Amino acid sequence: MNPQNDIPADVGTVVDIQNGLAIVEYSRSDACDTCKLKAFCFQKGGDITKLTMKNNLNVKKGDMIQFEISPQMRMLSSFLVFILPIIFMIGSYFLCKSAIGLSENMSIVVSLVSIAVAFIVVKIIDGQIKNKAMIQPKMVAVISPKN
Fold this sequence. Notes:
By secondary structure, the chain is an alpha+beta fold. It has one domain. The chain is built from 4 helices and 5 strands. It has helices at residues 30-33, 38-41, 71-100, 104-129; strands spanning 9-18, 21-27, 48-54, 64-68, 138-144. Strand 1 and strand 2 form a beta hairpin. The radius of gyration is 20 Å and the shape is elongated. The protein starts with 8 loop residues before the first strand and ends with a strand.
């Protein structure tokens, strides 16, 4: 936990610095071990992922840092990845079945296609909000600077 604001903080190692941004590699935390959705955070089956964040602590390659991801970002990510596709699927089914009057089978096909559309929408939203300061991971402290 970050003692300043009770937001869970993670630890990572700076692997590169580019244009004022630090690329941080980190492993799953202990909290991830009990999470049923951990496979969605760590893609390609690995236990390590990379984040890019503003280098506000002037860290250098090899430094170990503590960082935090805001609860709002965690909630937004969960909503976009898990809830939005379900809303698209159910909404398109009822729209096709009730409002347009398509057959049951066609309504099901359209609702399944709408899941793919939802993920395209999520990808577009992700591209739009990726650089917004309020959702970026933030460096909290340097744990062990590289000598």
